[in-house]
């Protein structure tokens, strides 16, 4: 049996680990929006030495290190399924342990410590001789017109590119997200976050996510965007990132670790997936 949750519109299918399942193929099947349940990704809960492990697959079946909206949905799912009965708990992911703190249960709201950002090009798996990839220019061709795009890369629990834009709606109508995501220097592709600044405490954001495409929200992307904006002196120590179907609050704690606060909602429970 599986369930479906969303965090600010970023939707996921969740279930408990079964050894016999090829989850890469399973993700492609159940995440298909025409022949499956439909979702941006698949989250699997596994007990690992008395620690909850979140296994995450994109809709195309590719394994991803982490997901900011996904981990909030994962936290609520684990509470709903009584896999955990605490308001503060750790979740094991590929980039490390993420600390979850439940702020309220109805409506569900939690805060996740995503750790410190990493600007190292090697960590980001970028084909470059430069130690970091900040304020870099990339030339793209859109409708036979060459455009120069200024980008900043940061590993924030996963691989992210941040692009500051003046008009978010215009960007979403173009193919610039797809081009940057698959640009040849990014060895494993990269999540591309387009950010429009409203003021020092508020921004709008849209993400073109590798393995998915345009998504309604991206928690680690919102966090990466905050990190870059703060580094450039363009925002305060805590901001609200406004997404199509919700808002996330992102900021630093005293240790300069990134804290992400946001909701998660259950859409459907106990879905019987044929062949699972």
Rough outline: globular
C-alpha-based Rg, rounded? 18 Å
Percent of residues in helices: 10-25%
Domain unit count:
2
CATH class categorisation of the largest domain: Alpha Beta
In sequence order, what are the helices and strands, one letter per element?
EEHEEHEEEEEEHHEEEHEEEE
Please state roughly what percent of the residues sit in beta strands, choosing from under 5%, 5-15%, 15-25%, 25-35%, 35-45% or over 45%. 35-45%
CATH H-level superfamily title of the largest domain: Diaminopimelate Epimerase, Chain A, domain 1
Q: End-to-end distance, in Å?
A: 8 Å
Overview of this protein structure:
The structure is a single chain. It is built from five helices and 17 strands. The protein has a 17-stranded mixed sheet that branches. Strand 3 (41-48) and strand 4 form a beta hairpin. It folds into two domains: 2-113 and 262-271, Diaminopimelate Epimerase, Chain A, domain 1, CATH 3.10.310; 136-256, Roll (Diaminopimelate Epimerase, Chain A, domain 1). The protein has 276 residues and is α+β, with helices and mostly antiparallel strands. Helices cover 17% and strands 44% of the residues. The mean pLDDT is 95.
């Amino acid at each position: 049996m599986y369930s479906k949750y969303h965090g600010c519109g970023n939707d996921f299918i969740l279930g408990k680990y079964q050894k016999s399942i090829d989850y890469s193929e399973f993700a492609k099947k159940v995440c298909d929006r025409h022949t499956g349940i439909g979702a941006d990704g698949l989250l699997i809960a596994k007990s690992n030495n008395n620690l909850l492990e979140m296994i995450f697959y994109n809709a195309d079946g590719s394994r991803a290190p982490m997901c900011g909206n996904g981990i909030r949905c994962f936290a609520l799912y684990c509470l709903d399924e009584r896999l955990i009965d605490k308001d503060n708990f750790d979740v094991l992911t590929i980039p490390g342990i993420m600390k979850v703190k439940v702020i309220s249960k109805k409506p569900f709201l939690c805060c996740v410590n995503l750790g410190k950002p990493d600007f190292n090009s090697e960590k980001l798996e970028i084909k470059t001789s430069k130690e970091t990839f900040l304020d870099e220019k990339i030339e793209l061709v859109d409708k036979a017109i060459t455009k120069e795009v200024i980008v900043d890369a940061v590993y924030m629990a996963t691989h992210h590119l941040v692009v500051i834009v003046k008009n978010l709606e215009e960007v979403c109508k173009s193919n610039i997200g797809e081009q940057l995501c698959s640009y040849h220097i990014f060895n494993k592709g990269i999540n591309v976050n387009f950010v429009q600044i409203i003021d020092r405490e508020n921004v709008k954001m849209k993400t073109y996510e590798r393995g998915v495409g345009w998504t309604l929200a991206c928690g680690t992307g919102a966090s990466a965007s905050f990190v870059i904006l703060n580094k450039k002196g363009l925002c305060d120590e805590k901001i609200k990132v406004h997404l199509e179907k919700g808002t996330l609050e992102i900021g630093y704690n005293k240790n300069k670790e990134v804290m992400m606060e946001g909701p998660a909602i259950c859409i459907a429970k106990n879905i019987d997936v044929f062949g699972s």
